[in-house]
Design a protein that fits this description.
Layout (H helix, E strand, L loop, with lengths): L4 E2 L6 E2 L1 H11 L4 E6 L2 E7 L6 E5 L9 H25 L3 H12 L4 E3 L5 E3 L1
Antiparallel strand pairs: 1-2, 3-4, 4-5, 6-7
Helix pairs in contact: 1-2
Length: 121
């Protein structure tokens, strides 16, 4: 039986391979491109914990059309990294982990004080 994963950006759920394809078609902004000096890099940031990964795009960086021509493939490599990170760090249910983090950081949530009375965080 395949592990089911939930998309951290929307309600999609599926096996890791299906989630990877979903990222590529529905959330291309999950991998961004930057120029650092003379090098192009792709950057992936986990939408749950904000851990980041960047990698220099080595071949073809001198060709101005390379990035435009291969950006879809490069994004899919970045999404490989994200799916692996989600599996290793956040377990099977990425969306649940995002909701848990949102609840913990929600300024409208209250904690009970020592006397049982709710207090602002």
């Amino acid at each position: 039986m395949s592990t089911q994963m939930e998309c951290p950006w929307c309600e999609f759920s599926g096996a890791p391979r299906a989630l990877h394809a979903h990222f590529g078609s529905s959330h291309p902004q999950g991998v961004r491109f930057e120029t650092r000096g003379t090098r192009n890099v792709y950057v992936v940031e986990c939408p749950i914990c904000h851990a980041g990964y960047d990698q220099t795009i080595k071949p073809g960086t001198q060709d101005p059309t390379f990035l435009e021509e291969f950006q879809r493939e490069i994004r899919l490599v970045g999404f490989d990294m994200l799916v692996n990170h989600l599996l290793a760090t956040h377990g099977d249910s990425s969306h649940d982990a995002q909701e848990e983090q949102d609840e913990q950081s929600d300024p409208t949530q209250f904690e009970e004080g020592a006397n049982g009375v709710p207090q602002d965080n």
